[in-house]
Amino acid sequence: MADDLLDQIRLNGAVPSHVAVIMDGNGRWARERHLPRPLGHRAGMKAVREAVEGAIEASVDVLTLFAFSEENWQRPATEISALMDLLEEYIAKEASELREQGVCVHVLGDRGRLVPSGRAAVERVERDTCEGKRLTLNLCISYSSRSEIARAARLLAEEALKGTRRLEQIDEEAIRERLYTAPWRDPDLLIRTSGEQRLSNFLLWQLAYTELYMTPVLWPDFTRRTLFEAILDYQRRERRFGNVTA
Ligand code: IPE
Ligand code: IPE
Ligand code: MG
What we know:
CATH superfamily: Decaprenyl diphosphate synthase-like
Order of helices and strands: HEHHEHEHEHHEEH
Oligomer: single chain
Helix content: 40-55%
CATH topology: Undecaprenyl pyrophosphate synthetase
Structural class: alpha/beta
Shape: globular
Number of strands: 6
Largest sheet: 6 strands, parallel
Number of domains: 1
CATH architecture: 3-Layer(aba) Sandwich
Distance between the termini: 39 Å
Radius of gyration: 19 Å
Bound molecules: 3-methylbut-3-enyl trihydrogen diphosphate, magnesium ion
Number of helices: 8
């Protein structure tokens, strides 16, 4: 269906190894259809499947999805519980499929705020998929970048107070190692759907040199084609990292 784009991606060569996505626009998708917002979130589950399968087809190594922010806890209780129910439903429905596809799932964020059944589901999917070698899928849930950075600072301060770390050893690498994303390289490409042009407290540290791709597509309408178009756009860019080109 999107094989033409996939062929082009392969011809172009290097694909982004790590793709991050701000999955936005579920509410607007529902409103356009005069549906309640939770039905937009439900429709967004299919798009997650598209993103995962597209990432595997394009040979992306790491896919990091922003599913629920710490700020999203301010939403009405009915919407929050609909989202948390969907999370558990997604895990129950998809865990075995993800494992068969070779996907290894990690959940990043403050999981202590999840209800016990949500926490258990998260632990289960991480355990059941931990052998996956084809794609790492990071689900950011109750995640906010500023609190992730503050947490890293606190962990380092503890070591300094205990005397196990000298002040000169508090550097970029020490902070990087204490972020939830420590095992992976920074994202090469960030996609945000729904046309918003902001980061909304997502991976502020990690996105320092990431290529940004904003698309008006609402998250429930996202397909592997949307992903492939973003990757093709990425492949046309020149990343300089502050240097000059030869
Ligand atoms: C993204 O869709 C999902 C979450 C933030 C949980 P929204 O719910 O933000 O949808 P809009 O932005 O209102 O359209
Ligand atoms: C960002 O979307 C969070 C997620 C996609 C999970 P929001 O809809 O919460 O962001 P704002 O409020 O438009 O900045
Ligand atoms: Mg939104």
